[in-house]
Every structure is written in C-alpha cells, then in structure tokens.
C-alpha cells in the first residue's frame, strides 16, 4: 500500500485519467473529489462489497435454474439500490 500525505486542495494522480483531490478536512473526516472516466466505476468500499456478495448469490441462484427466486432477488436488489439523490445526500453528509 502506498501512503501519501496531502493538504487541502492538493491532488493525487493515478495513471493518466484519475485524479483524487482533497476538498475539505473537518475534524476526523476528509472530503475527497475523484475525477475519473465514466467507464471506470467509483464506489465506496462497503457498497462494492455488497454488490459483490449480491452478485455471488445471484450467480448461485441462476446456476440452480431457480428463475422465480432469481427474479425475486432482482426485485429485492432494485428496492435496496440507493437512488442518485440518496447517494448525493450520503456524499454531502460525508458518508
């Protein structure tokens, strides 16, 4: 793991296309901005892990040819997926 120290408004560049900028520092929270191409997904780690777990369950159900269970899972996932508004609200609140 590479560990870098950055101050407010300083940036880190990853490859040619990704820039991470420190936008605000408030007590124990740091707000960062990530500029990356649209084809590169950028999500919080806990969300990424949840997506991976859900994908594994969906693959297992699909392998068992239990289509009705798969459709139920899909409906459940759609209900649990945060809307764009909720994601922006989380970001604004520093989550």
Question: How do the strands and helices of this protein lay out in sequence?
Answer:
Layout: E1 11-14, E2 18-26, E3 29-35, H1 45-63, H2 67-80, H3 84-92
Antiparallel strand pairs: 1-2, 2-3
Keywords: Bacterial flagellum biogenesis, Cytoplasm, Repressor, RNA-binding, Translation regulation
Subunit structure: Homodimer; the beta-strands of each monomer intercalate to form a hydrophobic core, while the alpha-helices form wings that extend away from the core.
Family: Belongs to the CsrA/RsmA family.
Write a structural description.
- By secondary structure, the protein is α+β, with helices and mostly antiparallel strands.
- The protein has two domains: 1-38, no CATH class; 43-95.
- It has helices at residues 45-63, 67-80, 84-92; strands at 11-14, 18-26, 29-35.
- The chain has a three-stranded antiparallel beta sheet with strand order 1-2-3, with no helix packed on it.
- The chain is elongated.
């Amino acid at each position: 793991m590479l560990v870098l120290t950055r101050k407010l408004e300083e940036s880190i560049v990853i490859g040619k296309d990704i820039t991470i900028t420190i936008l605000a520092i408030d007590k124990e929270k740091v707000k960062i901005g990530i500029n990356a191409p649209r084809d590169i997904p950028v999500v919080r780690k806990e969300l990424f892990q949840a997506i991976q777990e859900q994908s594994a369950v969906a693959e297992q159900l699909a392998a068992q040819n239990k289509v009705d269970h798969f459709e139920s899972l899909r409906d459940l996932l759609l209900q649990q997926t945060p809307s764009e508004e909720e994601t922006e609200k989380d970001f604004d609140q520093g989550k």
